[in-house]
Design goal:
This protein has about 230 residues and is mostly helical. The chain has one domain. The protein starts with 7 loop residues before the first helix and ends in a 6-residue tail after the last helix.
Length: about 230
């Protein structure tokens, strides 16, 4: 199987492209009650791209040795907790809180991979438990978590099995999205692997943007609600 190699600037550009799609998807969901179909469909690419970027970066040589896993987990936990305030306030969640926002989805993936990297029977059992329990409590559930593991495995050592599992995980997002637009991320990533985009890395921008854009949508809805708009 061919190794998937992307330029650093291209990886960063993918992240910002996903942020743009996510913003449109959330504007549609939280301000227009999900009535703009093309924004919803385009938004189905966000999760696969976010998961790919995370897994690709974690699979880089020396990532575990440099202590990147604990740092990433701390950032995801911190900003995921901050984002939970507007995320919950915007509504549409079961029992007022479930599922946890997508930063916790990425946290589950990172924690699972960290335990796998540590190795040993105990860590592998713990990784399975994190995947099982964590996957039940976050956005996009187990398909997202399994996608992250499969992409990471493929980036470490390209195999047919990892590629097939990744494709099956993408296809299984149908049960959540009710469409197969997530699979469109595959040709997008293949095209991206041919590009070398000069995009500088902004280390904290992604983490900060997620809670900030949710807070902005929450604040925008306040005058809209007073003007008579109904949100579901």
């Amino acid at each position: 199987m061919p190794r998937l190699v992307l330029a650093d600037g291209t990886v960063e550009a993918l992240k910002w492209f996903a942020l743009l799609l996510m913003t449109g998807d959330h504007v549609n969901k939280y301000l227009f009650n999900g009535t703009i179909d093309w924004l919803f469909d385009a938004g189905r690419l966000c999760l696969p791209i976010f998961v790919f970027v995370l897994a690709y970066n974690l699979a880089r040589p020396g990532t575990f040795e440099r202590g990147a896993y604990p740092r990433t987990m701390k950032r995801l936990a911190l900003f995921g907790a901050v984002a939970s305030v507007p995320f919950i306030a915007l509504g549409g969640l079961f029992a007022g809180w479930w599922p946890l926002n997508v930063l916790f989805t990425l946290l589950v993936i990172t924690a699972t991979l960290y335990l796998v990297e540590r190795g040993g029977a105990g860590n592998l059992i713990a990784a399975g438990l994190v995947l099982l329990v964590g996957g039940s409590s976050v956005e996009y559930w187990w398909p997202a978590a399994i996608l992250g593991l499969a992409v990471w495995s493929y980036c470490k050592r390209p195999t047919w099995s990892a590629a097939v599992i990744a494709l099956l995980a993408l296809a299984s997002l149908w049960f959540i999205n009710r469409n197969l637009w997530a699979l469109a991320a595959v040709p997008l990533l293949l095209v991206a692997s041919r590009l070398d985009l000069p995009m500088p890395r902004l280390r904290w921008a992604f983490y900060a943007y997620y809670p900030l854009h949710l807070a902005a949508l929450w604040l925008i809805r306040i005058p809209m609600s007073k003007a008579g708009y109904l949100f579901f």
